[in-house]
Write a structure and sequence with these properties.
The chain is an alpha/beta fold. The strands form three sheets. An eight-stranded parallel beta sheet has the order 7-8-9-10-11-12-13-14. A hairpin with a 5-residue loop joins strand 1 and strand 2. Helix 5 runs parallel beside helix 6, helix 6 packs parallel to helix 7 and helix 10 crosses helix 11. The radius of gyration is 22 Å and the shape is globular. The two termini are 31 Å apart.
Length: 438
C-alpha cells in the first residue's frame, strides 16, 4: 500500500512533450510553478548511488522553511493526467461468468440482463473498486461510470458505486451516471423514471440512458433531456451504438438541447452511426452539436469489437465521425468503455489503449489522441482543464518515456500518478536482459 504523498511536492527533472526538462512544484492541489530543472545530470551508476533502478526516487528537502517531498522524474515524460469519460464499473470483470458467444451488442445485452438480477452490493463494490484502482494505476484521476438502474436490480448498483466513489475519493474523482434501462417512456416507463429520480436522490451525479433500446428513441431522448433538467444534473446518453445509417437519435438530442436550452452539460457517447452518414449530414449535425455544446465520447475498443460482425468484406470502422466533429469544434473525447465483460472480453483500463486506437482507427495524431483521453475527456465530464502550467490542477501522469509517441506506443507500466497534488499510485518495472551488454 502506497502511503499518500506530501501535499507540497517537487517533481524534479521531468521531460515535457515539447522536450523541455523541468521541475514542477505542487502545493494545495495545484501546480504552483514550472521551471527549468535544477537537477544534477543523471548519475551514471544509480545502484552505487543507492537508488532503486526503475523507481523514481523520493526524498525530503527544506524549501523556504517548509518540507517538500522531492520526486526524481529523470527518464519520465510528464503529462496532464488522463481521465476515463465512459466506464461501466458495475459490469467490469464479469467476462468469465457472463458468456456472450455471439460477440455482438444484442448478445451482450441479453447475457447481461440474464446475469444482472443476481448481483449483490458486495460483489458490485469489490469489482467496481478493483476496476477503478486498475485505471488509477494507469493514470486515471477522474472516471465517469454508467451504472444500471432498472426494476430487477433497483438501486443496488448505484448505491454500490456511490460507496466506491466515497471510499476512493482521496485517490480519484468518480462520477456515477444513473443509467436508466428501458422502458422509460409512457405509462409502462413510470417505474423506471421513478427509479432514475431515486438514483439521483441516492447520490448519482449524472442522468443517463440508452434511446437505442427504447421503443421510441426520439421520445426517450427528449424525455432524458427533460429529466436531467428537472434533476439539475448533467446528461450522458448512450446514442446510436449501431452502424445502421437509418438510426440517428443524435439529431433528436441536438434538437432537444436546442429547444430547451439545456446547459448543465450534455454528452453523447458512442454515436457510431454518425460515422456512416454522408459527409454533409455529418457536417451539418456536427455544427449543431458544437453550437449546442454537446460533447461526444468515442469508444473505439468496445465498438470495434461489437459492431460489424458478419461483414466479410470491407467491414466498416465502428467509430463516430471524429474528423467532422472535431473540425466543427465539438469536444470529442475517447474512453475505454467495457473491461472484461460480455461487451468486451479485453481492455486494459488504460487511456493509452484508447489513444492508440484513436490514432489507428480515427487517424488522429498522437497529440490529438492524447488530448481526447485527457483534456477533452475532462471537458465532457465538466471538470477543470488540466495542463502542465502554474495554476492548473495538479493532476499528472509521469510515464517512463522520452516522447508522447513513445509513451502511447509503448504504454509502459512504469508510471507515477498525482491527484490533488499528491502521489496516489506508483508502478515500477525492472527489466533484466540475458545479454552481456545489458
Ligand atoms: Zn457504455
Amino acid at each position: 500500500v502506497l502511503e499518500a504523498g506530501a501535499t507540497t511536492m517537487q517533481l524534479r527533472g521531468a521531460t515535457l512533450v515539447d522536450g523541455r526538462v523541468v521541475d514542477v512544484m505542487c502545493a494545495g492541489g495545484v501546480i504552483t510553478s514550472v521551471a527549468p530543472t535544477s537537477a544534477q545530470p543523471v548519475c551514471a551508476d544509480p545502484i552505487a548511488a543507492g537508488a532503486v533502478p526503475g523507481d523514481p526516487g523520493t526524498s525530503q528537502h527544506g524549501d523556504a522553511g517548509e518540507t517538500a517531498e522531492v520526486v526524481d522524474l529523470a527518464g519520465y515524460l510528464l503529462l496532464p493526467a488522463p481521465a476515463e469519460p465512459h466506464a461501466h464499473l458495475d459490469k467490469a470483470r464479469t467476462a468469465a461468468v457472463v458468456a456472450n458467444p455471439a460477440g455482438d451488442l444484442a448478445g451482450a445485452i441479453a447475457a447481461w440482463l440474464d446475469h444482472r438480477p443476481g448481483l449483490t452490493v458486495d460483489d458490485l463494490v469489490a469489482r467496481g473498486r478493483a476496476s477503478a484502482l486498475d485505471a488509477l494505476a494507469k493514470g486515471v484521476t477522474a472516471l465517469r461510470t454508467h451504472v444500471d438502474v432498472a426494476a430487477d436490480i433497483g438501486l443496488r448498483a448505484v448505491e454500490a458505486m456511490v460507496q466506491v466513489r466515497e471510499e476512493l475519493r482521496p485517490l480519484l474523482d468518480i462520477q456515477v451516471v444513473a443509467f436508466a434501462m428501458p422502458p422509460t417512456v409512457g405509462p409502462e416507463g413510470a417505474e423506471h423514471r421513478a427509479l432514475l429520480r431515486a438514483a439521483v436522490d441516492a447520490g448519482a451525479d449524472v442522468v443517463g440512458g440508452c434511446p437505442l433500446i427504447e421503443d421510441d428513441g426520439r421520445a426517450a431522448t427528449e424525455q432524458f433531456v427533460a429529466l436531467a433538467g428537472d434533476c439539475g444534473r448533467p446528461l450522458d446518453l448512450h446514442v446510436d451504438e449501431v452502424l445502421d445509417p437509418a438510426r440517428l437519435d443524435l439529431v433528436h438530442l441536438a434538437t432537444a438541447v436546442e429547444a430547451t436550452g439545456f446547459d448543465l452539460g450534455a454528452t453523447a457517447s458512442h454515436c457510431v452511426s454518425l460515422g456512416v452518414q454522408p459527409v454533409d449530414v455529418q457536417r451539418r449535425l456536427a455544427a449543431r452539436l458544437a453550437a449546442a455544446g454537446v460533447g461526444v465520447v468515442a469508444l473505439p475498443l468496445t465498438n470495434l469489437y461489437l459492431q460489424a460482425r458478419g461483414v466479410a468484406v470491407a467491414p466498416p470502422r465502428a467509430i463516430t465521425a471524429v474528423a467532422a466533429l472535431t473540425a466543427a469544434g465539438v469536444t470529442v473525447a475517447a474512453g475505454g468503455d467495457n473491461v472484461h465483460d460480455p461487451f468486451n472480453p479485453l481492455g486494459r483500463s488504460d487511456p493509452l489503449e484508447a489513444a492508440t486506437l484513436m490514432v489507428a482507427v480515427a487517424h488522429r495524431s498522437p497529440c490529438e489522441a492524447y488530448d481526447a483521453v485527457s483534456v477533452a475527456a475532462r471537458r465532457v465530464m465538466g471538470l477543470p482543464p488540466v495542463a502542465i502550467a502554474a495554476g492548473a490542477p495538479a493532476e499528472l501522469l509521469a510515464i517512463r518515456a522520452s516522447s508522447l509517441s513513445g509513451a502511447i506506443g509503448s504504454a509502459s507500466e512504469d508510471r507515477l500518478v498525482v491527484h490533488h497534488g499528491r502521489v496516489v499510485a506508483r508502478t515500477t518495472v525492472t527489466t533484466h536482459l540475458a545479454t552481456e551488454h545489458s
